[in-house]
From TrEMBL:
Highest taxon in the source lineage: Bacteria
One GO BP annotation of this record: branched-chain amino acid catabolic process
Organism: Streptomyces antnestii
GO terms of molecular function: magnesium ion binding; oxidoreductase activity, acting on the aldehyde or oxo group of donors, disulfide as acceptor
Signal peptide from the UniProt entry: none
Cofactor requirement: thiamine diphosphate
Protein name: Pyruvate dehydrogenase (Acetyl-transferring) E1 component subunit alpha
CDD domains: TPP_E1_PDC_ADC_BCADC
Gene that encodes the chain: pdhA
The keyword Cytoplasm appears for this protein: no
Lineage of origin: Bacteria, Bacillati, Actinomycetota, Actinomycetes, Kitasatosporales
Stretches the record annotates as Disordered: 1-26
Length: 378
């Protein structure tokens, strides 16, 4: 008789019941986006911060309108407007210290400008005349990133490296709802959580990835819920409420700085304009849907709060608008000047050491340019 044949001799016990390694409950986002403006909590909002957010958001709206106008005048190749999303743009810039890093996407020119970049320099890439247009190290602002979500692993790498070196640096990376479906999004969040890197991920859920609505993009309960799967907190915030976005991001930055690791923030907002000036949004969404968001405009929400508290009157609004107008006039004037460009710069920053092919191409272009200028001299 074998052991197996002996009754009760071999009784495998089931493995212990499976338990999550960490409690997922504290990581879960709220059921509703966090709001401050229009609620009782708004009374506690700092008057100076309210003014600052208001001035920046108004300036941002004007910047968007001016940049879009410049595309129509042929001065800018393309502009992805963030009209309607200015609260997210401005709050993201304001919560960072100078030593921190911002990793923006192509839609986040305003965040770069609110961080202190020259408004013209910030448009260099979209003008198509030079690479990034500004020194990312000087401004601690990575290039405005067109390949979706690729800025996220960069942000994680930088933040992790800074932590290893003992530098007090937080990276804030911005991405769209569509970008959250990319592999880079997954890789970045996974690494950030495993390494407890000091990163804040800000997803601006503006409803669309060009013409694709969020419902066709994800089956997740919310984009903020995705955080739980990686083991980081997810926060859901009203992306048009500048005070709420500022508060949630500031808290996430503080948490990261103190060694608490990354946070995923989903800001629920809406893209009021088409994807870019080259897109026709009326082909895939109804005007009524756009109109429904007008009463929840980030400027309107701030204006209501400031006027109700007696912190802003007509004269104050006029002064803020006049300042924004002056910025737009300066932008217009400088963008209307033809930039001085050397076509040979094309070859300057491709490789540390040029390949034979590139050297040949550079020589060919040099010869063509010389022949042209000889012709012009004659
Ligand atoms: C890797 C990659 N795939 C596709 C594209 C083309 N593309 C440019 S913008 C865009 C939509 C992105 O939507 P979302 O992430 O929601 O950002 P939003 O434009 O709404 O700010 C797509 C698919 C791209 N730029 N990069
Ligand atoms: Mg989007």
């Amino acid at each position: 008789m074998t052991v197996m044949e002996q009754r009760d001799a071999y009784r495998p016990t089931p493995p212990p019941a499976w338990q999550p390694r960490t409690d997922p409950a504290p990581l879960l986002p709220d059921a509703e986006p966090y709001r401050v403006l229009g609620t009782d909590a708004a009374a506690k909002a700092d008057a100076r911060l309210l003014h600052q957010l208001y001035a920046e958001v108004v300036r941002g709206r004007r910047y968007n309108a001016q940049a879009t106008a410049l595309t129509k005048q042929g001065r800018l190749a393309v502009y992805p407007s963030s009209t309607g999303q200015e609260a997210c743009e401005v709050a993201a810039a304001l919560v960072l210290e100078e030593r921190d890093w911002l990793f923006p996407s192509y839609r986040d020119t305003l965040a770069a400008v609110a961080r202190g970049l020259d408004p013209v320099q910030a448009l260099t890439l979209l003008r198509g005349d030079w690479h990034t247009g500004y020194d990312p190290r000087e401004h601690r602002t990575a290039p405005l990133c067109t390949p979706l979500a690729t800025q996220l692993p960069h942000a994680v790498g930088l933040a992790h490296a800074a932590r290893l070196k003992g530098d007090d640096v937080v990276a804030l990376a911005m991405v769209g709802d569509g970008g959250s479906s990319e592999g880079d999004f997954h890789e970045a969040l996974n690494f950030a959580a495993v390494w407890q890197a000091p990163v804040v991920f800000l997803v601006q859920n503006n409803g669309f990835a060009i013409s694709v609505p969020l419902a066709k993009q994800t089956a997740a309960p919310s984009l903020a819920h995705k955080a739980v799967g990686y083991g980081m907190p997810g926060r859901l915030v009203d992306g048009n409420d500048a005070v709420a976005v500022h508060e949630v991001l500031a808290e996430a930055v503080r948490h990261a700085r103190e060694g608490g690791g990354p946070t995923l923030v989903e800001a629920v907002t809406y893209r009021m304009e088409a994807h870019t000036n080259a897109d026709d949004a009326t082909r895939y969404r109804a005007d009524a849907e756009v109109d429904a968001w007008r009463d929840h405009d980030p400027i309107l929400l701030l204006e209501r709060e400031l006027t109700q508290r007696g912190l802003l009157d007509e004269a104050g609004m006029r002064a803020v608008r006049a300042e924004a107008e002056a910025m737009a006039a300066d932008l217009r004037e400088r963008m209307n000047q033809d930039p001085v460009l050397d076509p040979m710069d094309l070859f300057g920053h491709v490789y540390a050491e040029q390949t034979t092919q590139l050297r040949e191409q550079a020589a060919q272009l040099r010869a063509e340019l010389d022949a042209e200028s000889d012709g012009a001299d004659r």
